[in-house]
Write a structure and sequence with these properties.
Elements lengths: L2 H28 L4 H22 L9 H30 L8 E6 L5 H13 L3 E7 L2 E6 L7 H8 L1 H11 L1
Antiparallel strand pairs: 1-3, 2-3
């Protein structure tokens, strides 16, 4: 098979995965099995898959696969749990009479190579209450942390980004 045929096959597979993912999101958001909703979901998903499929390669995203989609779903679940956990932590800090904070800026080294993966990691850190990503410099994220728990770079990276990074690494590998 020629490179052009392989490229077309890969692109067609990406369109199909993108369609399935978009349609699944549509079905979850509408929570309806009425035929009008399903038909509309199919049409919207096809249009978006065609439109987004053309620009997909320019984002530096890896080819879609069932494995990557699975890891991304697990990543979203972990992100959701971390957001809830961090909300309780910050609520405890705010309600505590002595306001036990130790704010600071820490450097978090990442092993992610793609810019899009680093951006998703930085946004995940920012979405988690108590942390805020200030900048991304090469393979290092500068993060403001409301309670600095460690001065050690490896421990800091494990505490702040370790939960997200292992799944993002699987998605973008």
């Amino acid at each position: 098979m020629s490179d052009t045929a392989n490229e077309r096959t890969g692109r067609a597979r990406d369109y199909c995965y993108l369609f399935v993912m978009l349609f699944a999101i549509w079905m979850v958001l509408t929570s309806s099995l009425q035929w009008q909703e399903v038909i509309t979901g199919v049409l919207v998903s096809v249009v978006l898959a065609v439109y987004l499929g053309r620009t997909y390669a320019t984002l530096g995203m890896p080819p879609l696969s069932v494995k990557r989609i699975g890891y991304f779903i697990v990543y979203l679940a972990v992100l959701s749990m971390e957001i809830v956990r961090a909300n309780f932590e910050v609520a405890y800090i705010v309600l505590h009479p002595k306001l036990p904070i130790k704010p600071g800026v820490v450097a978090v080294k990442t092993c992610l190579k793609q810019d899009i993966a680093k951006t998703i990691l930085a946004n995940s850190i920012t979405l988690t209450p108590g942390t805020f990503t200030l900048d991304i410099i090469d393979d290092t994220l500068l993060v403001h942390w409301i309670v600095v728990r460690s001065e050690d770079n490896e421990e800091t990276a494990r505490l702040i980004s370790g939960r997200f990074e292992k799944y993002l690494k699987a998605v973008f590998a």
